[in-house]
Amino acid sequence: MHGDRVRNDAMRTATVSDAAEGAWPGQALAAALLEALPAGSQIAVSWRTAQGQVAESFTPGADGVLRASALDRLECDPPAIGASDERYADRIEAAWWLQDRSRASLAVQMPRALPAWLRAGWLAMARGLVAAELAALRAHARAEALEKSERLQQALFGIADLAGSGLEMSDLLSRIHGVVCGLMYAENFYIVLYDDIADTMRFLYFADRHDPYVANPLQVIRGEDMPTSLTLALLRHGEPLQGSSTQLRERLSVPHDERHGPDSADWLGVPMRREERVCGAVVVQNYDSADSYGEEDRALLAFVAQHILTALDRYRAREELERRVAERTYALQLSNRDLQAEIIERQRAERLQRALFRIAELTITSDTLERFYSQVHDVVSELLYARNFYIALLSDDGERLQFPYSIDERDMIREARQFAGGLTEFVIRQGRPLLADRHRIAELNSRGEVRSHGSAAHCWLGVPLYRDDAVVGVIAIQSYSRAISFNARDQELLTFVAHHISIGLARKQAQDRLLTAHGELEQRVASRTRELAHTNAELVAQIGERESAERKLTHLALHDPLTELPNRSQLLERLDHAIARARREQRPFAVLFLDLDRFKLVNDSVGHAAGDELLVESSRRIVGAVRGEDMVARLGGDEFAILVEHIDGLNVAEELAQRVLRALGEPCWVAGREVFPSASVGIALWHPRYRNGIELLRDADAAMYRAKGAGRGRFAVFDEEMREQAVRILDLEADLRRAINSDAFIAYYQPIVRLDDGVAIGHEALLRWRHEKRGLLLPREFIGLGEDSGLIEEADWILYGRVIEELARGGEGYISVNVSPKHFRAGDFADRLLRMLDRAGADPHRLRIEITEVALLDDVPRALRMLRTLRSHGVLAQLDDFGTGFSALSYLHRFPIECLKIDQSFVAGLVGESRPESVAVVRAIQALAGTLGIHTIGEGVETPAQRAVLRELGCAFGQGYLFGRPAERMRSVQPAVGE
């Protein structure tokens, strides 16, 4: 190329005058200087910037000697040659320094000599013109650099915005491709991810106008399957590569393979790194022009590639967060559904229990059988749809079917009939319940198994009534509407109720028979005195019947109606006798407390009737496993007890427990399912310290829970360690009560600081117990006992009093106190706290309360009123352990919260393997807090690295061991901005 030539890429930009004249960069400088010289003159100008970059400008006729002379003058500072020396009147050579410490030189060859004054004047003019032209070039280069920097910044902002958007991955990568195209020629562009351990890669995005390859982002390509891939060579090489495809293959010893697409004239690829490990690459290609990418493009693409990796990481972190949120929401929905089902089941059980109690009561309070039937109908109506209800009883000879009670909206009168083939008779013959809709009824009619009587029901449900294992009748309900049907659960419920109705009916009939017998007796005594002997014989029979009934009632009072085992009352009576005998004879005995494992699962899965079957079968197996003289009792639910007397030692009781566990462990069939029951057994051996049977049962129960906690299906013996633990708990509870009375609780303060400079702006007050024997106790050593006994609330109020006294003494900064959900359930909490502040004369604006999300959501209206009352008096609220509960804007914006305290589990994860997840959570919390206009405090800050990450994420305040451990005295406090 002829004309001026610039050696530095940074100074290739032409001035405005250059552009007007159509010259290449710097040509106008030599041309302008040439205008003031004689025709035929030649000029060469050179300059070196302060950074050491060299460039030159020369006229088209200048030879190499003249240009070399100008360049040589940059290295020395001789006087101007030809400016005043007549010996060189046809030449001018000069070098000088410019104001920005750059250096310039020139060499001029003229066809004839010029006067000295003219040469000196021209040289002065040349120096000024060179300085002005170079200043213009530098300004233009800076403007172009700023423009490039702005485009790059906008591109990076665009990539960051795309990473936070809700776009799908394909749309996201397409948008990123568009951003890169705005920075360089990137029409042919692709992104590849790499696993350096497995040596596999995935083409996440691929756009190429010459290569028809269609990338599948989910396809994992093994390195051994593509050994001739230039992309794989780049990933393994780990450094940027630029040049033609042919040059790069020769450099990396990669053979040509047509399967990998056509060769490009210029190929530029840069690796993406994560923690010094290559995890992918970004590649651009130009199929038309060689050397289209330079060092600047390579640096730019490397910089953009890391931001693309960051964007991808943010996208994956957001997807992971959304997935975890969805999983957690689904888990909460399942938990809520189970809880609702449990509530409904409990309500149903309570209604059923009330109904059974009423049925038992009716056998005593109803004066006639007709009233008994009517009241039983009312009880059933509370449990089921029983608008159409009747009771059918077999006659004594079994030939007729009578209807002592019937209420029906269509068949007003139900006459007695011969035992035939109706639905009622079908239930009596089969001896089991029948649930039939109209289709089922029609099917039974068509098969000849029944012959319907009365109006056709849309749905019919009947269950048998038993007396001494024989079916004596039926209780039935029916519906004539398609909108009302019965199900298996209704059948189970009516069957259970019918069993108790059978018992009540038998009792009522027995009572009526007794009344009838008494009436007949009185009539016979009055009218037939001559038949006194016969009447007396009948009376004796009736008395015997009453005594039998009384014996049955006594048996029911001392036995469990389901299993016929002795109940708790009879067991406690036997235990008292056994304790008295043991004191007299010094013969030990033992009590085994047995609880079936996972019995509730059977009830919930296959119903209470199946649970009752399992209880009966379990009682039978227990009785079969013990000795003849041992007593087995059912205490209620799935709990049993065994009294083992006349033993030589503990080994007898342990062998018996093993036998019982083996017997229970055998599989059995319940409600058509095979179940494998198991139990946990606790053993308490008699000791002279026991005063009654209740204490023995209590210790055996404690041992049973020890066995259940050890893994179920085993037994445990109550020992001195368990007793000492119970005594320790009682002693600690007594100490806790004395500590409250003696005011032994103190406040420790942990500073809350600004993360920028570490200056304390407040403190959190923490409860400590100064035990008279054990020294200073932390809350974890007594908080559980305090919550169980209800004493922890009183200890909290002692702490609040200490803090308010501290506030009343003056000072700067605030003090926060923890408030449990129990306090928020008390309606007078806010008024009581404000009264304490008022009595002490303390500034309420320096007090903060720390609450958890559980306290907010326990009773939302009450919590909202309480927070507003406190805030109106200056007491602000901080949300503690934020992020471990619901942590949703859907409820948080409703409450007047001043600050969110980021839970220490997330702060701890900011450094280490869980950093991406923790950073994403903390960033989300910061965004939520920013939306609500509140600030955040990071809890549990222990390392400078955690502090630095919190500051980068926008958290202004922190608390933790890095800034100070809790102490009795507070640090000096500087008020926070805005206080």
Q: Can you describe this structure in just a few lines?
A:
With 979 residues, the protein is α+β, with helices and mostly antiparallel strands.
Number of strands: 32
Briefly note the structural class of the backbone. Answer: alpha+beta
CATH class of the largest domain: Alpha Beta
Strand order of the largest sheet: 24-25-27-28-29-30-31-32
Q: Regions with pLDDT < 50 over 5+ consecutive residues?
A: 1-25
Q: Give the percentage of residues in beta strands.
A: 15-25%
The CATH topology of the largest domain turns out to be TIM Barrel
Please describe the biggest sheet, giving its number of strands, its sense, and whether it closes into a barrel: 8 strands, mixed, barrel
Name the helicity range.
40-55%
InterPro entries: Biofilm_reg_signaling, EAL_dom, EAL_sf, GAF, GAF-like_dom_sf, GGDEF_dom, Nucleotide_cyclase, Rev_trsase/Diguanyl_cyclase
Region (Disordered): 243-266
Domain GGDEF: 587-720
Protein name: Sensory box-containing diguanylate cyclase/cyclic diguanylate phosphodiesterase
